[in-house]
Design a protein that fits this description.
This protein is mostly helical and 143 residues long. The chain is built from 6 helices and 3 strands; from the N terminus they run αβαβααβαα. Helix 1 crosses helix 2 (45-58). The relative contact order is 0.13. The model has no long low-confidence stretch (mean pLDDT 94).
Length: 143
């Protein structure tokens, strides 16, 4: 967020979290064992989830007590937004690694929230939005 190239862009589409300290500041005073958090993030989902888990541990909250959701819908990012970081193959691997990790370590965490909204906003019809969304869901299940 402090790079000159980011000037005028930081915070346009949500809270800017660049460091663990940013996450600590954001979550200060919030009891993570009592609040379910939803983060509409995709490409950086694994990074922000890791930061969130560290802050929970620093609060003395065990991973089986935290709950929340990350959007983590990278296929929608490829189709509609172009806000991805890695190619599709490695991105799908990261997503399925999150599924596995959370099922074992953070069982109350919703590891994906599949969205068709951006696909529709990018110009699809309602039928196309639904078709892409269901197709994406199947791709995640098959991974």
């Amino acid at each position: 967020a402090d790079d000159p190239l980011s000037e005028g862009e930081v915070g346009k589409v949500g809270v800017s979290i660049s460091t663990l300290e940013d996450m600590r500041e954001l979550l200060a005073g919030i009891p993570l064992d009592k609040v379910s958090t939803s983060m509409t993030i995709n490409a950086p989902a694994m990074i922000l989830l890791a930061m969130y888990a560290v802050v929970a541990e620093e609060q003395g909250v065990s991973m089986d007590k935290i709950s929340g959701t990350i959007q983590n819908d990278i296929l929608k990012e490829y189709i509609a937004r172009g806000t991805y970081v890695f190619p599709p193959g490695p991105s799908m691997r990261l997503i399925t690694d999150i599924f596995e990790y959370c099922s074992e370590q953070i069982p109350k965490w919703n590891t994906i929230s599949i969205s068709g909204y951006h696909i529709r906003e990018a110009g699809s019809t309602a039928v196309q939005e639904l078709a892409f969304t269901i197709s994406n869901a199947l791709a995640y299940v098959e991974s």
